[in-house]
Amino acid sequence: MSHTIDQAYQHLKSVLTDQGVDVDNVEARLKAQQIETPSWGYADSGTRFGVFKQAGVPRSVYEKFEDAAQANKFTGVASSVAVHIPWDTVDSWTELNKFAASLGLRVGAVNPNVFQDYDYRFGSFGSERADVRKRAVSHMKDCIAIMNAVGSKSLSLWFADGTNFPGQGDFRRRKRYFQEALSEVYAELNDTQTMLIEYKPFEPGFYHTDIADWGMSAALCTALGKRAKVLVDLGHHLPGANIEHIVAFLLDAGLLGGFHFNNRKYADDDLTTGSINPYELYLIYSELVAGENDGIASDVAYMIDESHTLKNKIEEMIQSLVALQSAYAKALIIDRGKLFQAQLADDIVGAEEVVKAAFATDVRPLLWKVRSELGVPNPADPVVGFRQSGYADAKAKERGIGGGGGLGA
Ligand code: PSV
Ligand code: MN
Fold it and tell me: First and final CA of the chain: distance in angstroms?
C-alpha cells in the first residue's frame, strides 16, 4: 500500500518539479499549516428545532480537548482549540492549559457569548439599554482576562445584534453604541492580542444585522486600530458573493484577521468545509498563497466554525481539515509565472487553464508524504485512520449519551 503511494508521490514530485514547482518549499509550507478547531464543534448540537444527542460526546471542556487532540493526531495540523465563554468556563485555566499541553494542544481564540442570555434578546452592544451594553462589555473584559491566563492571542467576536422589523431600531444610534463598546473592549487588549470581528448578513436578525457585511466590519476595525481585524466566516455571505475577492481585498488593506471555515449551501455555516464547493475553497487559498508569497498573509488566524448534528463530530472535523490541507496544497502548486504572463497578455482561457490545472491535480500523494513526516498514523487516509483506532466506540461506552452542553453555532 505505502509502496504504491510512494510511487505515486515520486511521480507527482517529478511532474511538479518539471513544471518548476519547488516541491520542498510546498511540503515545508504544508507541514507548517495550522488550523484551529472549535470546542463547540465537539459538543452536542442541533437545529433550531432540537438538539440531537450523540453517544460519546464530551461531557466537559477537558473531554472536548481530548476529542480535538484526535482531529490533530490524524491530520497533524490542528493543535489549537477555540473556546466559547461561558460554555467552556473552567475552575482553573492554568489546569486546562496544562491538560491541553499534555495532549499537544493549546487554547486558541476566546469567543465571548453575548447572544444567549435573555438580557441580550434586543441586542448586546446595540441594545438601547446602557446596563445591557455594560454587561456585554464587562463579559468581554472577563474574556480578555481568560486570554491573559491562557496566553491566547485572539478575541473572536460575533454579534447576534439586529432587528426584525423596520422602525424597531435606529441604525446610526446602534452603530455608535457599537463603536463605543468596541473601543472600550479594544483598549483592554495588549499589544500582542487581536480583536477579530465577524459579519453576518442575517440571522437571528432578519430585517437588519448591525454588522452585516465585511465592509461594515472593516470600517469598525479601521476606526479601532491596527489590532482589530475582519474575520471571514465562509457561511456568512449572501448567494453569489465572491469570497476570494473579499479575501484579496482585505489582505491588501491589511485587514484580514482570520477565517471561520465551513460551507454554506443556503445559509449560515454548518456544512463541512469543502463539502459543497471545493473549487471556491481552493480559490480562497489561491489568494492566501499569493498573499503569503508577497509577505502580507503571515498573521491570519485559520479556524473552523462548525458544529455538526448528524455526523460523528471528530470525523467531520477531520474531513474539514483534510479539505483545507488539500485546498492549500493545490493553491501552492499553481504556476504563478504562467498565470501572470497570461494575465498580462489578456489570455483569459490561458489564465483559467492554469488555475484549473492545479485544482485538477491529485495532491493526495503529496499530503500522504507531509502527514507521514508529521508522524500521523494512517497518513494516506485520516478518516479511515480515525475509524480504525476504535476511539469513537470506546468513548461512546465510556461517556454514554447526553453529556455535551453547548448549542454552539
Ligand atoms: C453564529 O452564526 C456563529 O456560527 C458565528 O459564526 C460564531 O462565530 C459562532 O456562531 C460561534 O459563536
Ligand atoms: Mn463564525
Answer: 40
CA of 187 relative to ligand 2 center, distance in Å: 23
306 Cα: distance to centroid of ligand 1 (angstroms) = 8
Predicted TM-score (pTM) of the model is 0.97
Distance (Å) from CA 235 to ligand 2 centroid: 8
Nearest CA to ligand 1 atom 9: 409
Q: Name the closest ligand to CA 158.
A: 1
Predicted pLDDT at 408: 45
Cis status of the peptide bond prior to 204, with omega within 30 of 0 = yes
Q: What is the largest CA-CA distance in the chain?
A: 68
Q: Give me the residue label for grid cell 469598525.
A: 220
Signed CA dihedral, 386, 388, 391, 393: sign only = positive
Backbone angles phi, psi at 181, to 5 degrees: -65, -40
Pairing of strands 208-209, 37-38: unpaired
Could you check whether the bond before residue 86 is cis, i.e. omega within 30 degrees of 0? yes
Please state which CATH number belongs to domain 34-333.
3.20.20.150
Which pairing describes strands 45-47 and 50-52: parallel, antiparallel, or unpaired?
Answer: antiparallel
Q: Pocket residues for ligand 1 (CB within 6 Å)? A: 111, 158, 198, 200, 233, 260, 268-269, 305, 408-409
- Ordered by start, the domain boundaries in the chain are 34-333
Distance CA 325, CA 33 (A): 8
Quote the cell numbers at residue 16: 511538479
What mean pLDDT comes out for the span 290-307? 96
Nearest CA owner, ligand 1 atom 11: 409
CA–CA distance, 264 with 393 (Å, rounded to integer): 30
Residues 360-406 have pLDDT tens digits of 999 999 999 999 999 999 999 999 999 999 999 999 999 999 765 55
Q: What's the CA-to-centroid distance between 409 and ligand 1, angstroms?
A: 5
C-alpha cell at 27: 511540503
Say how many C-beta atoms besides its own lie within 10 A of residue 170's C-beta: 13
Of all protein residues, whose CA lies closest to atom 8 belonging to ligand 1? 158
Q: Are strands 162-163 and 208-209 parallel, antiparallel or unpaired?
A: antiparallel
* 172: Cβ contacts below 8 Å, ≥ 6 apart: none
pLDDT at 117 over 50: yes
- CA 343, 348, 352: angle at the middle one, nearest 5? 90
